[in-house]
User: Which sequence fits this backbone?
């Protein structure tokens, strides 16, 4: 009997240890919300495939408001998102591959003029750029609009125009036409530059979508 | 006409409210999120179990042993074990510059540090630099015919860790350039940090570079 209790205590302590050490994979996940769980399961299903390969990937986490550069399931770098908007995210359920990274103006070394000592740096990267993916997805990166009201107006104008266009089409046709997902992210300028630096051609991207309250 | 105008105005007012909500810092999307679902408790438990199982699978893919992480944008090299940072070292990584290959119309070298996942393949003590062609061309010199003329000792520090295709983590004489993108793709460290990396890393230690 004593042995039975001893074994039971050991097993219990081991199981509680394993629960305690289980890391928080998706922050802000409400485990009582079925929709949030389904989204978490969909995301993890995709991420496990990517994490099994030796290549970094990006998760745009619209719940945790962050862009995460990851590898093997590990968060390598986190870029906070100040604000975001999105359309047609219902179709954004798969892995998207970046078609082309933002262009970089590289410096050419001229041996006749001596070694070039002014290499590229983060400051050379754009703060405002658009990423196109396959399958179709558009991610628009814009720098922080604090103290830049004209940028805010332009951002809102574009958002309004997209919505009015969608609604007009829906009114005219009586149904919502299929359209490619699109995400606009506002990042601090240095974070936008950091993202432009870190992405590579054909890099995989995933999107974690929020659930409606 | 009213059948169209009323929903249109309602929609526009709705958009205004959405925009105001968003400007207060709360993200709002246009019909793009996942829908809440009502579900019985057995189905909810099944979802929770599936989620935990996948979370565990992902955890098992994470490196259990220490790994090297290189941030080429900020020029830092870290050694991490899970979330614990064992070493944070200032580094120099690839300059991203271009050098034309002589005699070739379209060929060129691009001095980037490669991105992705690699592994420590070799650990060397007192390495010597076997200067490649680009090192001579960059300095406007003739490419030597003899291999012996390519060897330059004492410029890579006391240790070097190779991670494939001629790329190494090594030391530098130019410590004032640490923190900048100045290399031809290798990762440079100061002597103390290089010693720590040599001590902590083994052949096979993963190197993640982004």
Assistant:
């Amino acid at each position: 009997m004593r042995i039975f209790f001893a074994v039971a205590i050991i097993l219990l302590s081991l199981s509680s240890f394993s629960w305690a050490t289980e890391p928080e994979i998706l922050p802000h996940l409400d485990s009582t919300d079925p929709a949030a769980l389904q989204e978490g399961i969909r995301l993890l299903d995709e991420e496990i495939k990517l994490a099994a390969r030796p290549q970094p990937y990006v998760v745009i986490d619209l719940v945790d408001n962050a862009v995460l550069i990851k590898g093997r399931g590990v968060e390598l770098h986190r870029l906070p998102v100040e604000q975001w908007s999105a359309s047609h995210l219902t179709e954004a359920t798969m892995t998207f591959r970046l078609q082309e990274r933002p262009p970089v103006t590289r410096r050419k070394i001229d041996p006749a003029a001596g070694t070039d000592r002014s290499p590229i740096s983060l400051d050379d990267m754009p703060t405002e750029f658009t990423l196109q993916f396959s399958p179709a997805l558009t991610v628009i990166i814009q720098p922080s609009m604090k103290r830049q009201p004209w940028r805010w107006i332009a951002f809102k104008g574009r958002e309004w125009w997209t919505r009015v266009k969608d609604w007009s089409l829906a009114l005219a046709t009586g149904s919502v036409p299929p359209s490619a997902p699109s995400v606009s992210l506002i990042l601090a300028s240095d974070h936008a530059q950091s993202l432009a630096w870190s992405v590579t051609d054909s890099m995989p991207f995933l999107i974690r979508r929020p659930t409606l309250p | 006409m009213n059948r169209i105008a009323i929903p249109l105005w309602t929609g526009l007012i709705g958009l205004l409210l959405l925009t105001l909500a968003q400007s207060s810092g709360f993200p709002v999307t246009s019909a793009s999120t996942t829908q809440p679902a009502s579900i019985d408790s057995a189905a909810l438990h099944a979802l929770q179990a599936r989620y935990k199982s996948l979370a565990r699978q992902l955890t098992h893919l994470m490196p259990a042993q220490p790994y090297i992480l290189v941030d080429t944008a900020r020029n830092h090299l870290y050694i991490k074990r899970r979330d614990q940072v064992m070493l944070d070292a200032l580094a120099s990584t690839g300059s991203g510059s271009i050098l034309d290959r002589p005699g070739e119309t379209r060929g060129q070298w691009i001095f980037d540090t490669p991105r992705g996942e690699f592994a420590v393949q070799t650990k060397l003590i007192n390495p010597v630099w076997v200067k490649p062609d680009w090192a001579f061309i960059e300095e406007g010199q003739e490419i030597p015919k003899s291999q012996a003329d390519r060897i330059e000792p004492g410029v890579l520090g006391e240790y070097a860790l190779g991670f494939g295709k001629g790329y190494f983590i090594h030391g530098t004489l130019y410590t004032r350039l640490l923190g900048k993108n100045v290399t031809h793709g290798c990762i440079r460290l100061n002597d103390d940090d290089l010693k720590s990396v040599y001590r902590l890393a083994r052949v096979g230690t993963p190197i993640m570079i982004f």
Q: What stands out?
A: Chain B touches chain A through 66 residues (CB under 8 Å). Residues 18-31 of chain B have pLDDT under 50 and may be disordered. DSSP finds four helices and 15 strands in chain B.
